[in-house]
Amino acid sequence: MTTTPPVRLLVCDDHVVVRAGLLALLGSAPDIEVVGEAGTGEEAVALAAKLTPDVVLMDLQLGEGIDGVEATRRITAASAEPPHVLVLTTYDTDADITRAIEAGATGYLLKAERPEELFSAIHAASQGRTALSPPVASRVMARMRAPHPTLTDRERDILGQLSQGLGNREIARALFISEATVKTHLGRIYDKLGVDTRAGAVAVAKEQRLLP
Question: Residue by residue, what is the 3-state secondary structure of 171-200?
Fold first, then answer.
């Protein structure tokens, strides 16, 4: 009789108490083996390469250094057969979900999920299957069904400048408009895209091919 080896897991969360709680919880699962823990994105990238886990459990907000999205991108691009990344976070905005999936995350789970759901998602991720919390799955489906927002030519111009990393003053100079006008347009862009940050606007714009 052959036994299935446990899923080798690397945990990345910058909060020590949260990480300790996760390690204690995951330690109760006989078919999951925590092979390492990281408190920063850079540390997660390094340990993923060194320990070759099956799955990396990744928080999105990691304090100083690179965030969970960038760490996910680096981990999934580091080798021909990288570990699968399962996001575990409290954030469920469209922009966060989009950025994580575009970076290569296999699944996206919220920290409010029950332990059994977390265990199940880890096993699904280890097999390359998508695992999404129900609220996240609902948001993804709603976005797929929703028509793309209509942006004005000026809003598209500003989005294009935004995607190049320009600030409000630089955008104003490039488009020969005032900073106040740029801020007004940005507010309308955020409302139409359902985001509240510049990075979120660019992520959703790329996803929906709205950039000029």
Answer: HHHHHCCCHHHHHHHHHHHHHHHCCCCHHH
Query: For residue 212, what are its two tokens?
Result: 């000029």
If we measure between CA atoms, which residue out of 84, 158, 159 comes closest to residue 125? 84
Compute the 3-state secondary structure of the chain and give helix, strand, coil in percent, each to the nearest 5: 50, 15, 35
Number of H helices, E strands in the chain: 10, 6
Q: Which two tokens stand for residue 46?
A: 């390094």
Q: How many CB atoms lie within 10 A of CB 150?
A: 8
Read off the pLDDT of residues 89-147 as tens digits, 9 standing for 90 and up: 998 887 788 889 888 999 999 999 999 999 999 999 999 999 999 888 887 777 666 66
> pLDDT tens-digit profile of 10-68?
999 999 999 999 999 999 998 999 999 999 999 999 999 999 999 999 999 998 899 99
